[in-house]
């Protein structure tokens, strides 16, 4: 048998991911785009419901308050998504609620000045206003770093090797929102996971009118089937004598959203009252804003691959961070109870559907705004058990993580230096946040526990984020270990041409501002 040729055992690196049906600036038909946009909207509902459902009861809020917060969060998600796709990075990314803000927000909820309020409704309003004030102040971090191009300067220290752990852990770091949540209701979680994989992968060649229906709409079909199945189990009394935890995760009528939702309600700024400002709260929230910035940086690079675009140039990335800061400011003004970041699950859906079209995401933003104002209809979709979303996350988060690993093709992985940096950054990126989570569950406070609450929030938030820990470790090691003699091993010859807007002719096609705005904001 003849020895294999080199080209038969290796694959040449590719600037743009191949195999996508539609890239960032090519569009499916209007009918298909609307259906795909609705699918992205349904997926984004999961996080938009989960965060308020967890936080509002701790604040003393009612089911009616929870519905209003969910509606407001979806409304702002839609606005922020439109702003980002039009004027920010212009990548097809949904800008949704972020779990990174949980630590400082829970700290505000437990502030003694708020917990001492006896009336639950007044405590809810005062806590909401305190969170709003902290978000408004903290948003200035991303606004300044983005629009001043400081983040673009910082990104010069990034390389393909340094970005691999960051992008990978944007997906892998969310493992606790995958199967651990599926396991809370295996009778609907496992079938959802199997059905989604079968439709999107094994039956993807099934066509109806020359359209790969099962691949393109695998998520929508799977959710519909399993949601109906879950409703059947609920109506038949299967969970009647089960523990409360099982009922909350399995039943379709436990969210109490539909009955509490108004028919029409338009969110507006300062709807909860005037925000209150506290320096300690704001400083703790700044850590969450930094975490959101780092996680979004990884997510934007993943989205560019899954949209078959080039890596966003430094100034485009910084511009997107600036607009994301504006988004967090809107979160604070409207009172969404959390800040903004790129929705990782929606980035994964780009790869699952093989449609990276910007128009599809803009249509999904329209659905978010529309259904957030029509309360009853939005609450209907929001009543989908979170276990169903968690099953989809098992696939979608993994897909985003694998995009991060694909950046290794531009590096030399026969280098012991590169193996060391990649392995250590990935391991610590998973291990350090897990330590912080386990410590918090046992001690009811983070490892940082001093008399300075703002300092505790800052450290506990930073080191509870896998991508943030990975960035700190990977970028430090990559720029201090033999960095002068390892440019080629790090992938810099490929990376450097994407730093400047004019470094690659394709950047103009993907990232030019609409309405001829580049005349007023010329790219650097």
From TrEMBL:
The lineage of its organism: Eukaryota, Viridiplantae, Streptophyta, Embryophyta, Tracheophyta. InterPro entries: NCS2 (IPR006043). Its main location: membrane. It is found in: Membrane. Pfam families: Xan_ur_permease. One of its GO terms (molecular function) is transmembrane transporter activity. Keywords: Membrane, Transmembrane, Transmembrane helix. Belongs to the nucleobase:cation symporter-2 (NCS2) (TC 2.A.40) family. It comes from Prunus avium. GO terms for cellular component: membrane. This is Nucleobase-ascorbate transporter 2. It comes from the Eukaryota. It is a multi-pass membrane protein. The chain crosses the membrane at residues 38-57, 130-151, 157-175, 182-202, 214-233, 360-382, 388-407, 419-436, 458-477.
